[in-house]
Amino acid sequence: MKSLSRIAHAAILFSFASWSCAQITPNPALLVLSKHDQTLAIVDPATLQSVARIPVGNDPHEVIASSDGKTAYVSNYGFGAFHTLAVVDLVAQKPLPTIDLGALRGPHGLAFNHGKVWFTAEAAKAIGSYDSASGKIDWIMGTGQNRTHMLYVFPDAKRILTTNVSSGTVTIMEETEGRAGPPPGTTPPPGNSGPLPGPPPTPPGGDWQLTVVPVGRGSEGFDVSPDGKQAWVANAGDGTISIIDIATKKVTDTLDAHVPRANRLKFTPDGKMVLVSAGPDFVILDSATHKEIKRMRTGHGSGGVLVAPDGRRAYEACGPDNYVAVIDLKTLEVVGHIDAGGGPDGLAWAVQN
Q1: Residue 19: which pLDDT band, with cuts at 50, 70 and 90?
Q2: H or E segment at 212?
Q3: Among candidate residues 49, 50, 74, 46, the one with its CA nearest the CA of residue 61
Q4: Residue 283 contacts by C-beta under 8 Å, 6 or more apart in sequence?
Q5: Per residue in 33-75, pLDDT tens?
Q6: What does the alpha-carbon distance between residue 63 and residue 69 come to, in Å, rounded to a whole number?
Q7: What share of the chain is helix, strand, coil (3-state, %, to 5)?
């Protein structure tokens, strides 16, 4: 009896210790993917410490949080070998059932907008959207370009930009007011007589006009300015940055920014600075003058870049060094490092509301 009592007492102590060590998800939370460990780390930006690490499956590359900040979605990439999105409950800190994308292989870039997860499917040369309410893929649009990789979805979800790495292009997709199919009154199909009844239906997801804009070699990391007027595209193959005017859908300037191997590019929330991860360099540019403000060494290689919502700090995933560098955007100095697992890359914010 004493032995049983001791076992029960030990179990109670263990349960209490586990409960007392558990840490709730901070708000906001910094999300960091580890390629090597295949985990998603939930990081407290105040302490720079991980509060949880959740398994997310094969070759995780990018992560995005839902609008309410309670769910994360992770692309399992594998250069086209995989076709799933991992899903994580950020409140309970546990994995949820995986989303199977079927033939839409090589998911990479992610966005969350209008209750949907928008994703690139690199091997399928397409973009799709997954409706989280219905649990179905409700829209697919092909690009016809090679390595459709990263994307940006405008707030109204009626305009989408994506970079096509191997084609050296950007695709601008715009939803139109037109309708699919032949106009009313045209020749009916064989076996029918008379004009086609009424106007043809608009397909689910609407009609879209696609414009392909040539940029530089290895176009990958890019961002849209906070005012929605420009897109800056980092061209890893030639170290330049292409600036696209969104209204005219044309390149208005190409900056010799010396950013070979550029991986990601982000605007600060005020639109004044542009941050580029380029190999061992972290490059900061003035968006108005297009001049370099500072170039710093943050590690031996670079990956994802993320800016805090308040614009005070930037975060750069340094994969070979197994840490995320924290940069103060006032002093423009590295002020810390985050251990979030081996080979960190994709970064995102989760803000619960």
Answers
A1: very low
A2: strand 207-214
A3: 74
A4: 257, 258, 259, 275, 276, 292, 294, 295
A5: 999 999 999 999 999 999 999 999 999 999 999 999 999 999 9
A6: 12
A7: 5, 50, 45
Contacts of 11 (CB under 8 A, 6+ apart): none
Pairing of strands 159-164, 305-307: unpaired
- Partnered with residue 99 across adjacent β-strands are 85
**Interatomic CA distance for residues 9 and 5, integer angstroms:** 6
Tokens representing 87 are 């899903």
Q: Evaluate whether 59 touches 35 at the Cβ level (below 8 Å).
A: yes
Other CB atoms within a 10 A radius of the CB of residue 322 amount to 18
- Taking the C-alpha atoms of residue 35 and residue 78, their distance in angstroms, rounded to an integer, is 11
pLDDT in tens, 246-263: 999 999 999 999 999 999
Q: What is the pTM of this model?
A: 0.88
Amino acid in position 344: P
C-alpha span between 173 and 85 (Å, rounded): 23
- How far is residue 56's CA from residue 96's CA, in Å, rounded to a whole number? 9
DSSP state of 123: T
